[in-house]
Design goal:
Gyrase A, domain 2; 16 helices; 21 strands; elongated
């Protein structure tokens, strides 16, 4: 035997040992008696996970509201155009965020209206100001085009060719965000996939408690925004005909350095269902167009209940907040978030650190609004609104979760909030389309029948090869077993999920593995019949069968690529297992089997090879 044979043999033995060690932890999940040593389970931490159709669990489907992404792009461009025109009007210094006073001056010369999901209408008060908006400014954004233009009014819209790109980006960002949240929960067996505008989350083996927690965390938009409260406005005071259960209240607050005390009105709802009642009324005002476009009316929990009635201190109570425009600082600027404990009241809170850009924007926002209240808004709910005492540098703030609730309940909410803040806010809202728990009974029956079918198929193939090809059949059977070992170990290394279609693909790969050995053996048999020696017949048999094997396996591999590209869910799983199995069958059929045939011809010096 030459040295090359020994090197190849040692390489294959090392692969077989490594494959077994990689597969060992996965086998232990079937039988605890097979539990490997800790060193092996730590090194090969990934393992094959049973799929939802096998183990049961939960399946959540959410529809991504992609139209909201288009509206967000429209709003962003409207804000950028307002700032840019403010610079050209000479109102806003270059590369600076406009203040509220500067925005008010811009609105005296320009009226910006947001129409439909994609249009921005710019109404200039003078023709000279209209000249400040030129074609170069509009085209610089890339995704805007001009629909119409008259003396003082310009209509812009998001370009149609960008709409699909915005939708695809929103869906993919939502999928990645949800996947990050699931990973943070430590659910490694979970899968998160996107289909059109739907996000599908599958967690095999999930319990009812895990189902509720995952559903709550996944559906949380986690849009964190910091907005200034408009305490000087008389909007709330001007509302009339308030519905039953909603009253008006007032408080004395600071509205700036020069206005240390002003009376600010707000709406209050108390008792059971207070939040829904107040939120419904507020939404009605918004739908009726009564809330100005440059303001927002949101609700938040009124901590302390009724201050004038000690008996109602712990009664559920909600109030309104009247805020300036859209946020200048959002959760996208967050670099780190963690749970901390307030020593003064022994309550957990969420500490937030901004990145460098966010820290600068946060310092600028607080510096321009000293002695005003800043609302911390999470998912359109005001969590707190502290008074800014001085400019806040360093990019740090804290979010307190109020309410008269048990400590552990607040702590769990804080931890969940940290998960979603660190994973990132969803780019657009999502809407539940289907949420269900799937029982394991169907999966158990399926895997038993699927495993039985695969086992019967393997045994029949092995017996046929042994009976028909004799000694060559022993080599073929060994290659089939090695192919199965390599395939399963590769799935374990990649942490693959085994589904019923995957079991079908494994059974199909066994047949594919046999196909390569059949071609080689038949070629060897032809050469032996032509009077060639065993060694020469093996050389010629492998040489002549090589391209036939490649052609047959390659065409099947292409079919797997097509299935993966255009298939969904289980079909993709079938395709991946099929393609992976083709790679392992080529390796065992061409490379490994040649080692054993060479051993027969050169090591054992077999003069008459029995090939049936």
């Amino acid at each position: 035997m030459n040295r090359g044979w020994y090197a190849r043999f040692i390489f294959v033995v090392a692969l077989v040992v490594s494959a077994w060690l990689a597969l060992w932890p996965s086998l232990a999940s079937l039988d605890p008696k097979l539990e490997p040593p800790k060193a092996i389970s730590d090194f090969f931490s990934a393992r094959i996970s049973p799929g939802l159709d096998i183990k049961g669990g939960m399946r959540l489907m959410y529809e991504v509201e992609v139209d909201e992404a288009i509206r967000d792009r429209r709003d962003l461009r409207a804000d950028q155009l307002t700032r840019e025109l403010g610079e050209r009007f000479g109102i806003v210094p270059e590369d600076e965020t406009p203040t509220r006073e500067q925005l008010a001056k811009i609105r005296e010369r320009l009226d910006v209206k947001l129409v439909t999901d994609r249009e921005v209408h710019l109404q200039f008060k003078s023709a000279d100001d209209r000249g400040k908006l030129d074609h170069d400014l509009v085209s610089s954004y890339g995704d805007l085009r001009q629909l119409s233009d008259d003396a003082q009014k310009v209509v812009l819209t998001v370009r149609p060719d960008f709409l699909e790109r915005i939708r695809e980006t929103a869906v993919e960002q939502a999928r990645e965000t949800i996947a990050n949240r699931i990973d943070a929960l430590g659910m490694k067996e979970a899968s998160v996939t996107a289909q059109d505008t739907n996000i599908i989350v599958e967690v095999p083996g999930a319990t009812e408690a895990e189902f509720d927690r995952v559903r709550e965390i996944v559906s949380k938009t986690a849009r964190l925004e910091f907005q200034i409260v408009d305490d000087e406005a008389g909007f709330i005071a001007g509302l009339s005909d308030l519905p039953e259960g909603i009253t008006r209240a007032a408080e004395s607050v600071s509205a700036g350095v020069t206005k240390p005390s002003v009376s600010s009105s707000y709406l209050v709802a108390r008792g059971e269902g207070a939040r829904q009642k107040l939120a419904t009324y507020v939404q009605g005002l918004i739908d009726a167009g009564k809330v100005p476009e440059d303001h927002e009316l949101l609700v938040g929990e009124l901590e302390g209940g009724d201050p004038e009635n000690p008996a109602k201190q712990r009664e559920e109570a909600w109030r309104t907040w009247y805020l300036f425009g859209r946020a200048q600082v959002t959760g996208q600027a967050i670099e780190e978030a963690f749970v901390a404990n307030d020593p003064q009241n022994n309550k957990p809170y969420v500490a937030v650190n901004f990145n460098s850009e966010g820290a600068s924007a946060f310092g600028d926002l607080t510096g321009r609004n000293v002695k005003r209240r800043m609302a911390i808004v999470l998912d359109d709910r005001v969590e707190s609104a502290p008074v800014i005492q001085t400019e806040i540098g360093g990019g740090r703030c804290q979010i307190t979760l109020g309410g008269f609730r048990p400590y552990n309940e607040i702590l769990n909410e804080a931890r969940d909030l940290v998960i979603v803040l660190k994973a990132g806010a969803l780019p657009v809202p999502i809407r539940p389309a289907n949420e269900q728990m799937i029982g394991p009974t169907l999966g158990t029956d399926g895997i038993q029948k699927g495993a039985m079918g695969a086992m019967v198929g393997v045994v029949l193939v092995l017996f046929f090869m042994l009976f028909y090809y004799q000694v060559a059949g022993i080599v073929a059977d060994l290659m089939v077993v090695m192919n199965l070992l390599f395939l399963l170990s590769a799935m374990a290394v990649f942490g693959a999920t085994l589904t019923l279609p995957g079991i079908a693909a494994i059974a199909l790969n066994i047949g594919m593995a046999v196909d390569a050995n059949v071609l080689i053996t038949e070629r060897i048999r032809e050469e032996l019949r032509n009077g060639k020696s065993t060694r020469s017949a093996i050389d010629q048999g492998f040489a002549r069968a090589f391209w036939s094997i490649i052609d047959s396996q390659f065409t099947t591999f292409l079919a797997g690529v097509v299935l993966f590209q255009f298939g969904t869910g289980p079909i993709k799983g079938f395709a991946i297992t099929l393609m992976l199995g083709i790679c392992t069958s080529l390796f065992t059929g061409v490379f490994c089997s040649r080692i054993f045939f060479d051993w027969l011809a050169q090591g054992l010096r077999v003069q008459q090879l029995r090939v049936g």
